[in-house]
Amino acid sequence: MSKIMFAEFIGTFILVFFGVGSAVLMGDEIGMHGIAAAFGLSIIAAAYGIGAISGAHLNPAVSLGFLASGQMTGAQFARHAAAQVVGAIVGALVIYIIASGRAGYDIATNGLGQNGYGAGYLGEYGLGAALTFEFVATFVFVTVILGATGPGSVPGFAGLAIGFTLMGIHLVGINVTGVSVNPARSIGPAIFVGGKALADLWVFIVAPLAGGVLAGVLHAAGLTRAD
């Protein structure tokens, strides 16, 4: 079990290092398309790197979907989620350390790739839009994951399907919330940024978890399962 937890820790670290790192360190150069690609590529890398060890969930909403679908126990979910959150925090810390080495960087002004909504945040979408996007996008994401790794799936291609789905989600929603669909990914940067990032954090915990649960329940009912 310690090996599985370490794999989830490393995998979530990779997700934050690639994804959040691209936004913080290279956002001006690569734009939203580049950031979306970085998040997708991080999933592909982690899926093929550590997927055989832990399933490469890298996301409490994904693990909750597996729990709701009957493929995990409550204890397994708790261990996965704990490792994911720690991996995201360490990933955000490393990005913060690197960003702090740039002249003029100020976390209060430049941020740390945190998620948010409302006045002053990217497209300034409201709370209702943020909740809707995060719920629907996470539902779609977890549904794809459960299908791509479940009965009838094509062996060896799950990582690509999942990575490209996350990339597509980012292409749709970066301007809305910065895209969470993952409570761990949101918790990591928010801890260091504080203020509004922490105040908004509940949205990026509640909505993704609800979307993951719905995806798992429908999968368990057979509505999105090949068999």
From TrEMBL:
Keywords: Cell membrane, Membrane, Transmembrane, Transmembrane helix, Transport
Protein name per UniProt: Aquaporin Z
GO molecular function: water channel activity
Transmembrane segments: 6-27, 34-55, 85-105, 125-148, 160-181, 201-223
Annotated localization: Cell membrane
Pfam families, sorted: MIP (PF00230)
Superkingdom as given in the UniProt entry: Bacteria
Family named by the database record: Belongs to the MIP/aquaporin (TC 1.A.8) family.
Cleavable signal peptide: none
Database matches in SUPFAM superfamilies: Aquaporin-like (SSF81338)
GO cellular-component term (any): plasma membrane
Record-linked PROSITE patterns: MIP
Main location: membrane
Topology term for the membrane: Multi-pass membrane protein
